[in-house]
Amino acid sequence: YNPYGLGAWLTITTALATYFSTERGLxxxxxxxxxxxxxxxxxxxxxxxxxxxVLLYYGPEGRDEVTVNRLIGNLVGIGLALVLAILPLGNxxxxxxxxxxxxxxxxxxxxxxxxxxLDGKSGAPKEVADELIALRSQHLNRHLQLHELANDFYxxxxxxxxxxxxxxxxxxxxxxxxxxxxxxxxxxxxxxGSRIVHDPMCRNVILDENSKERRQIxxxxxxxxxxxxxxxxxxxxxxxxxxxxxxxxGISKESQCLLELFLRLLQMLENRxxxxxxxxxxxxxxxxx
Length: 289
Fold this sequence. Notes:
The chain crosses the membrane at residues 41-59, 71-92. The protein has helices at 3-21, 39-58, 63-85, 97-118, 125-157, 170-198, 200-207, 212-224, 253-281, and strands at 90-91, 286-287. By secondary structure, it is an all-alpha fold.
């Protein structure tokens, strides 16, 4: 046998296996492919072990024995992993914690946006607005990555949904879609906040410690930072209502509309995030009855 030929064989085959099983773009840096998982790794490791054992220990005459030994070893290991994966019996792949993590980080992102907005005295309007926009991009990229992972986990868990004991709660798929919607909606807090900063009238209202609007925003901030989520009936009409002080002096109609839009956005996010928490907590997963 030719050791250089073996080296070339390993280089070409492992490179091809790695290339065709690797996700494209950003997902290539986020772990294994959701389609191939550990398959390419097993292929490369098995091939390297067989070639190196034959080259260094057994010689060409032991090629078939080593190959059969490794294939049987892999199949036994995979079979044992399949058995252990379903013990204890439960649909563990349907865990909603990945979506819950996104909701938690959405609350933190909104808190960060509002914190910058309420502390706008510390910088010039352009600096504050630029900080909000930069933070929005940072948070949105992070949320997109987490959502991609949550979606992949769901798809992986739903592969055997034809079997009753492996079915994933269909409610989880809906919540994953709703989380995607709220990721975009939450980013508008920073977008509208940057417009408020550039509007002198709006900015004065937001920075006025005695203004009704600032007190309402602080109330929202305290609620969204509260870990004990309010799980009241979403149809309850006694929910918090944020509104603009229409009798305030020195503020134009356009500025009032901008503040009204911002407060309505906060109210909508408060209701929707609370509903997401409630629905995710009710998602069935784990031990099956």
